[in-house]
Design goal:
By secondary structure, the protein is α/β, with parallel strands linked by helices. It is built from twelve helices and eight strands. 42% of the residues lie in helices and 12% in strands. β4 (159-160), α9 (169-177) and β5 form a beta-alpha-beta unit. The protein binds zinc ion.
Length: 260
C-alpha cells in the first residue's frame, strides 16, 4: 500500500480540498499509526489515546458508567454546525467538535456558537496536515496556533484529533506539551467516502459499544441528516452522548485498579 493510497483511504478528497500537497506521495512508505492505516482503532490506549496515562485495558466496559458514546465532529467550523447544534440540543446530546485553525480564522462566529452551546471544541491542527510528515517546528505551530485561536474565542481546548488519525510518539508528546490529550476513534462513519444518510446511520447504530468514539465530519451533509437517527437509536440502546472530557471521566470512573 502506498502512502498515497493510505491518504486516499483516509479522505484524500478533504486533503485536496484543503490544498494539501499530494506531491509528497513519492516518499518511501513508512509505518503509520494503526488508525492511519486501517481507518479505525481498537479500544486500547496505544491506538486510541496515544501517550495517555489512562490504561483502557483496565476499564470495565460492563460498568454502567461506560454506556456513553463520544461523537467527534471534525473539520469545522462549517455552515452545517448550526443545524448540528440544533439536533444535539433537541435530543439532549453533546458532542466534541474538532476544528481546523485556518477555518476558525474564516468563521470565528461559527466557532463561538459551538462554544456557547456547551459542546466541547478541540484542536484539529492549523492546516490539516499529516502531522508525522512535517518537521517538529511545524507540528508545534499547528498545535499552538490552533490553541491560541480557540483560547481567544474562550474555548480552552483539552483534546487534539490528529488529521487522518496520523500520529507518532513525538506528535503525541508535543500535544501533551500543549496541554492536549490526543484521541483517535473506534468507529469511522466513512462519511468521507460519500455514503448516504441511511448508510451512515445504519453503520453507526449497528456498532455502538460502551465507550465508542465515532468519527464524523460537519462538512458532510448526509452526516447531519443521519444524526437524528443515530441519537434516537443510540438512546434507545441506553447510551448517553457525551463530550470527550465527559467520556474520559466515565472511562476513568470505570477503571479497575490492580493487575489484570
Ligand atoms: Zn480532519
Amino acid at each position: 500500500m502506498t502512502v498515497l493510497s493510505r491518504r486516499t483511504a483516509l479522505g484524500a478528497g478533504l486533503a485536496l480540498a484543503l490544498g494539501s500537497r499530494q506531491g509528497r506521495a513519492e516518499a518511501p512508505a513508512k509505518v503509520r499509526s494503526y488508525a492511519a492505516t486501517h481507518g479505525h482503532a481498537p479500544f486500547e490506549t496505544a491506538h486510541l489515546l496515544p501517550g495517555d496515562p489512562l490504561d483502557l485495558a483496565r476499564v470495565d466496559r460492563n460498568a454502567a458508567a461506560t454506556r456513553v458514546i463520544a461523537l467527534t465532529i471534525d473539520d469545522g467550523p462549517d455552515a452545517n454546525d448550526h443545524r448540528i447544534l440544533d439536533i444535539l440540543r433537541t435530543n439532549g446530546a453533546k458532542a466534541t467538535f474538532f476544528e481546523i485553525g485556518r477555518k476558525i480564522v474564516e468563521h470565528p462566529e461559527i466557532t463561538k456558537a459551538v462554544i456557547r452551546s456547551g459542546n466541547e471544541v478541540g484542536n484539529h491542527s492549523l492546516d490539516h496536515v499529516m502531522m508525522s510528515d512535517v518537521p517538529p517546528a511545524e507540528q508545534a505551530r499547528n498545535l499552538s496556533e490552533t490553541n491560541r485561536l480557540l483560547d481567544r474565542l474562550g474555548a480552552a481546548p483539552a483534546w487534539f484529533r490528529p488529521p487522518f488519525g496520523d500520529f507518532d510518539d513525538g506528535v503525541a508528546a508535543l500535544a501533551r506539551a500543549n496541554g492536549l490529550r490526543s484521541v483517535v476513534w473506534t468507529l469511522d462513519t466513512k462519511d468521507w467516502k460519500g455514503l448516504d444518510a441511511a448508510a451512515i446511520a445504519g453503520r453507526v447504530t449497528a456498532n455502538l459499544r460502551p465507550g465508542t468514539i465515532v468519527l464524523m465530519h460537519s462538512t458532510k451533509t448526509p452526516t447531519v441528516e443521519a444524526l437524528p437517527t443515530i441519537l434516537a437509536e443510540g438512546q434507545r440502546q441506553g447510551y448517553r452522548f457525551v463530550t470527550m472530557t465527559e467520556w474520559y471521566a466515565a472511562m476513568k470512573a470505570a477503571s479497575v485498579p490492580g493487575t489484570m
